[in-house]
Sequence to fold (494 residues):
Amino acid sequence: MKDKIFGVLQRVGRSFMLPIAILPVAGLLLGLGSSFTNETMLKAYGLYGIMGPGTIIHGILTVMSAAGSIVFDNLPLLFAIGVAIGLSDDHEGTSALAGLVSWLMVQQILNPSIVAVLTGAEADAAFSKANNQFIGIICGVVGALCYNRFKNTKLPEALSFFSGKRSVAIVTALVSVVVGLIFFFVWPVVYNALVSFGEAIISLGAIGAGIYGFFNRLLIPVGLHHALNSVFWFDVAGINDIANFWGGTGTPGVTGMYMSGFFPVMMFGLPGAALAMYHTSKPGKKKIAGGILFSAALCAFISGVTEPLEFSFMFLAPALYVIHAVLTGISMAVIAALPIRAGFNFSAGFVDLFFSSWVPLAQNPWLLIPIGIVVGVIYYIVFRFVIVKFNLKTPGREDDDDEESEGFSKLVKDQGYDGLAKKYVDVLGGKENIKEIESCITRIRLVLKSNKDLDEKAIKALGASGVMKAGDQVTQVIVGTKAEALVEAMKKYL
Fold:
């Protein structure tokens, strides 16, 4: 059971890779745009006349902020689509449509105006926070399950137009109504419980800040951290950490304690983790892993946007993410106990650290840099040790992330994709035996009329590193990262 659960989590994690690719750029746009259009900050530094409303620079920064914001505002939707594709049997586009339909249906049911009609009273505040990753992931799962179950549905002749994949969206919509009604009752309970929990730990001082930091990170995978953040950052329980810090209306030495400890983690800790994941990735996959990890690390350092990094490993290696949450909690507790205070308008990146250092309520903010370097080293050592010790499937280390053999690469070079593709079609039983074919990163995914008589030795002689059979028809041939090019060439002979 445990292996099955982790297998599903890894599939979910891999399904995030496509939307995650855009997040570093979006994070930089949003972070820089939001920071440099904040009127309070601009006035404090005498930049209002140069970069304030009505200036060309302000217009450019506003566009940057809006461009980055639209991606993060729709992150749950992107996850709904990504999970639907990732968990579907053949990663076909209809599964993405199913995930989208599920998301739209559930969000409409949880819309505060609809809730008000259903209840006859003003909607609970929880429903204004229903646009979150947790519900997005659930909708993606619903879409994938409906696609896998109903993609081959046969209907009577009179309804034949709706047979097969055309039935998927219809079924998904009906199932999603039920899912939405379940969330109608469950979501307010979950949300309000988190708010109450946040209010309960306020009296614990630095320890409370550590507990908050731990749960802040732990809840990010399901998007429930917003409920907890509202208690400490905004005026839900009288703390209002962000507004009081920047407005100078807080208490010296206290205000900012629920923000300061994030800077070492976001600016240095997670980049250290990224370096560890890069160094432990497979030799043939370092370039791919590095492209994702280093751009995400830069985004975290500059703007404090950590989702690109965190989502790259939170589902692939959940134990590692728990460690990350623990280290964040420790950082928050230690910094809260020290005479160090800094704050952010957007997130705990270098841009916000620089500008917050001049705010009257700031205390020794630049000490966060040497502390952050230490935190970065700790993250690197801990992450590298745990990844290697327990063989965790971080980017570049997944089970299906097999490297190409030298033999396969040589065959491609000598014979070209067309010549090699013809031979693959032949050893797989000819075009008459191949019903469906597609590529998936490093694999050729096939549905055959029969795979009983496949000659695995002949397939491996063509450079494949492995053959996996599931039943009598489904077969996967592991060839490496050139799988997509090879499949496209094979389709010419089908």
